[in-house]
Write a structure and sequence with these properties.
Layout: H1 3-11, E1 17-20, H2 25-31, E2 39-42, H3 54-62, E3 65-68, H4 76-82, E4 91-94, E5 108-111, H5 114-123, E6 133-139, H6 148-158, E7 168-172, H7 174-177, H8 181-193, E8 199-201, H9 205-211, E9 233-237, E10 244-249, E11 252-257, E12 268-272, H10 279-289, E13 299-303, H11 307-315, H12 318-325, E14 327-329, H13 334-339, E15 348-350, H14 353-357, E16 361-363, H15 365-374, H16 380-401
Helix pairs in contact: 2-3, 6-8, 10-15
Length: 402
């Protein structure tokens, strides 16, 4: 029995939470009579670009819709996770594609159009047929430089995924347990950004530990179908994966190892935005570059996924280190503004699929940190070698002076 079958049997048509985005506010303020289930709007627009009419917000509040204002929240998926709104085995409906990555927490996320969402809000239930499924089994342990973005690109590039993009990918296996939570979100986000919207991840102790202090709700464990048809199963050996990269060529998306673009000069680097950019992503990047000043030929920016992450960076003194070595810190909402303007300065490199779709290059956070140091696309292992050589030379000079 598939995980989604188990979940839907338990849910019995119930939707636990609705999260709307700011683009729908006027429609629902006009047509919604009252919300029969918990509903929330998370506003992540830049305050200077915020077009939300507060009269519409006041109307929606009288109809039972909660509102998180702009300027203090962040990417809706990360804010929802931080606030314990997504639980294993729960069903969440949204009009915001960003929320689909909450499947990492074992939540079944439904992306609805305005008409279906209005019907759900007013009726409190939804006819939700069970989707077709494919098993993605992760085996082994990924290498030191490998993250969720690499796994997603490797899966898309080297395996035959269903042509029907409505097929739900159930992701599980001991290799999933070896991935930290931030990399699971990067895996989900990259798959979603490249068109694979229907996902459900197996829940383990890492997920439960994350949710322990964030929600009083009860989660449910679901187990993958061990007897799944071999034709509906893809097995991936994580130790075989190398850092990957994606770029556009004549309007087609190309995927390959990072060595395909080795030495390609970059003008702008953006880490974060709709990949949420959790504290662990930034911590790993700083460890890789050893707090070394960045190349002055590149504009390098970090967009923390939420105000909570930004607060952690400030509290731990990391924000000061980032700006001191050459990073600009921008709100996550800046991504929407960024991708709406063409790149006129040269190649953009980023961790978001939106960067890719707007003509830039997609890579994992560690590869972006590497490029920020060298000014060109660089394998993290190559950067490690460069830094070691520089340290050895510096050590020799110190020894000579003694």
């Amino acid at each position: 029995m598939t995980m989604i079958h188990q979940l839907l049997e338990t849910a019995k048509g119930k939707v636990d939470q609705v999260i709307l985005n700011t683009h729908n506010i006027k429609y629902f303020a006009k047509d919604l009579s009252s919300a029969k289930i918990p509903a929330l709007i998370i506003n992540n627009r830049l305050p200077i670009d915020d077009t939300v009419d507060m009269k519409d917000i006041q109307v929606l509040r009288t109809k039972g819709v909660e509102y998180y204002p702009s300027g203090r929240t962040g990417m809706p998926a990360l804010v929802s996770a931080e606030d314990g709104l997504a639980l294993p085995g729960s069903v969440l409906a949204t009009t915001d594609k960003n929320l689909l990555e909450l499947s990492v927490l074992g939540t079944y996320v439904l992306l609805l159009d305005e008409k279906k969402m209005l019907s759900l809000l007013e009726n409190g239930n939804l006819d939700n047929p069970e989707p077709k499924t494919m098993n993605i089994v992760l085996q082994g342990k990924p290498g030191e430089w490998i993250g969720g973005t690499d796994i997603a690109l490797y899966l898309i590039n080297y395996f035959k995924l269903p042509e029907d993009k409505n097929t739900l990918l159930e992701i599980h296996g001991e290799g999933l347990n070896a991935l930290p939570l931030n990399e699971r979100f990067n895996l989900a986000r990259t798959l979603i950004g490249l068109g694979y919207d229907h996902l459900l991840f197996q829940v383990d102790d890492t997920v439960m530990a994350f949710l322990q202090d964030r929600s009083e709700g009860e989660g449910h464990y679901y187990f993958p179908d061990e007897e799944a048809n071999i034709n509906s199963t893809i097995k991936i050996e994580l130790q075989k994966i190398h850092p990957m990269i994606a770029w556009k060529e004549k309007d087609a998306i190309k995927i390959g190892p990072i060595t395909d673009k080795d030495g390609h000069e970059t003008a702008q680097i953006f880490i974060g935005g709709d990949t949420s950019c959790r504290y662990a992503d930034i911590q790993a990047g700083l460890k890789l570059i050893r707090y070394t000043p960045l190349a002055d030929t590149v504009t390098s920016c970090i967009m923390p996924g939420s105000q909570l992450v930004n607060g952690d960076l400030l509290d731990m003194g990391v924000a000061g280190i980032l700006t001191e070595i050459g990073f600009d810190l921008l709100p996550s909402s800046f991504l929407e503004l960024l991708v709406s303007h063409p790149d006129t300065r040269g190649s953009r490199l980023g961790t978001s699929a939106q960067i890719l779709h707007s003509g830039g290059i997609l890579a994992n956070a560690l590869s972006c940190f590497s490029a920020a140091m060298t000014g060109k696309i660089t394998h993290p292992l190559e950067l490690e070698s460069i830094l070691k050589q520089e340290e050895e030379v510096e050590h020799e000079h110190e020894h000579e002076h003694k």
